[in-house]
Amino acid sequence: MPDQDFHRIKRLPPYVFESVNALKAELRAAGEDVIDFGMGNPDMPTPKHILEKVVETVWKPRTSRYSASRGVPGLRRAMARYYERRFGVRLDPDTEVIATLGSKEGFANLAQAITGPGDSILAPDPAYPIHAYGFIIAGGVIRAVPAPSPDAYMSGVAEALKTMRPAPTVLVLNYPSNPTAQVVDLEFYRDAVALAKRHELIILSDLAYSEIYFDCAPPPSVLEVDGARDLCVEVNSLSKTYAMAGFRVGMAVGSARLIAALARVKSYLDYGAYTPIQVAAAAALDGPQACVEEIRGIYRARRDVLADSFARAGWDMPIPAASMFAWAPIPARYRDMGSVEFAKWLIREARVAVAPGLGFGEGGEGFVRIGLVENEQRIRQAARNIKKLFAADGGAQAAE
Question: Structure pTM?
Fold first, then answer.
């Protein structure tokens, strides 16, 4: 039976990133050096005290048993302490906090928990793919609202609410944004919560980049808004904050009713992360935080080198105020290629891999996402490769 016969698989389009990934694998198999900005995969080491806690806990015999799908109590308490310390939001670790296998799993399983067949969901375009496809897999229908800016997104949401029938059930927010690196202030969230209350919407907020910020105030949480906990759940992650992507530890926090729904779904699907990893995650949240500033500083330095060196190569792009990505408009000369073909051209001819914007929705066409996941030397080398490519093609000339 071909996979096209499966109902949920039929609802998923071909994976846009696959053609670029296949080229990357082919070149590497041939011994070529590819500078890879395509995936938001942290390359710096996990802080030593976190790894030491994993090792210490591994040797305790009971920690190899099944864990708890909600997360061990110590980790949930550490997550609640993080929210109180960082955002001034007091959460009940027993009813308003659940540990997830990364923020992506939490988001997808929450979509499963709250989505009925045909439910309409308001999601930004462009967006991180799980923000739409988590609901599509669950049987929902996405109303993709253009999000060239946060204000434009909310204006589009307000317009959509006037005409959508049946009325939507969920509003998706993601700031700092993946892929666009847009940021918002607390007033934005106040307006969003007021709108959601008027229209009886659930808000799902993705705050995975809460600690990766540079030229802006520390990003707020929607849960700081009075009354938000009645209708909001926020997902967050330790992946980027502590360079723990492979550990797969995240959190979902907020509305007790929604957290209970997520907990019920998860109870059928998993037994939680390996206990030593959960203990180490609690140590990360409760332990010394100088490592967070150090990781943030690495991303800031890479961002500055990227912006400067690529501009010298003839490719100007907005400087992101937060996140670990640059959302780069394709140079005007090459825009007609489209983001997928441009990304394939870069990897073939310059050995530089980026993520095509179309993979984040139709609103991403004309852009590529560049992850700050190579060191400064490699970023400069990528810029030199691109400069040579542009010059050989007769394209944009680099500044000397």
Answer: 0.91
